[in-house]
Amino acid sequence: MNNVPIPEIVTKKKSGTEMFQFNNKNLNINLLKFWSWNQSNLIENRTRGLLAEFIVKNALEIKSDYRVEYANYDLISNEGLKLEIISAAYIQSWTQKKHSEIKFGISPTVGSKENPTFDGKKRRWSDYYIFCVLTNKDQNTINPLDLSQWTFYVLKTEILNIFKQNQKTIGLNSLLELRPFKCDYLGLKKAVLTKEI
After folding, report:
1. Is 71 exposed, middle or buried (0-12, 13-18, 19+ CB in 10 A)?
2. Which of 18, 87, 126, 189 is 20 to 30 Å from 75 by CA-CA measure?
3. Is residue 28 in a domain?
4. What's the gap between Cα 153 and its chain centre?
5. What are phi and psi of 191, to 5 degrees?
6. Measured between alpha carbons, how far is 63 from 22 in angstroms, rounded to an integer?
């Protein structure tokens, strides 16, 4: 039996011009077509969450070539701050009877077994939570790429651990009671890196 571990695949950043192939011949399909097909619905919950991470990454000018799946936190700043990014919106991609309530998942997790500090105990692994709200309530004008339609709330994880230790979700009003630092896209970097919160 082969007990040699299979090493991690090191991902290389792709441009979108990479071609699909069959029998070593390029097809008329490139990776960009897949990306467009797979993630054009930016209002859909999962895609909006990934978009929020990308927005924060760019606001903080984080130098990373690609997203790491299944990490203990979503982003790490150039200064070493671990960040958990969570998004919510009033407008959804499905038919709604009313606007959605703004609610965020904040449940502690056991994290990855690959992490050097793994001990099987649940915790929040980040230094900060960044709660991202797509605030537009009008279906006709909502545009997740318009960064003026987003509001961000930055909160130290230790505050969640003190006041919401084992809580799995938090609504916007309960979050505001914890007095997070509220800012727009242009204020995010200053809020996190100068520790004004």
Report:
1. middle
2. 18
3. no
4. 13
5. -60, -45
6. 34
- Euclidean distance between CA atoms 35 and 146, whole angstroms: 20
Give me the tens of pLDDT residue by residue for the chain, a chain 197 residues long.
Answer: 567 888 888 889 999 999 999 999 999 999 999 999 999 999 999 999 999 999 999 999 999 888 888 788 999 999 999 999 999 999 999 999 999 999 999 999 887 777 667 778 888 999 999 999 999 999 999 999 999 999 999 999 999 999 999 899 999 999 999 999 999 999 999 999 875 55
Spatial distance between the Cα atoms of 56 and 166, rounded to a whole number of angstroms: 26
As a dihedral over the C-alpha atoms of residue 83, residue 105, residue 180, residue 67, rounded to 10 degrees, the angle is 20
Does residue 93 form part of some domain?
yes
Range of the domain at 61: 42-193
Q: Which of 118, 101, 98 is nearest to 110 (CA)?
A: 118
Q: How many domains does the chain have?
A: 1
Strands 103-105 and 19-22: unpaired
Separation of alpha carbons 99 and 50, rounded Å: 21
Considering only CA atoms, which of 166, 64, 38, 154 is closest in space to residue 108? 166
Amino acid letter for position 173: N
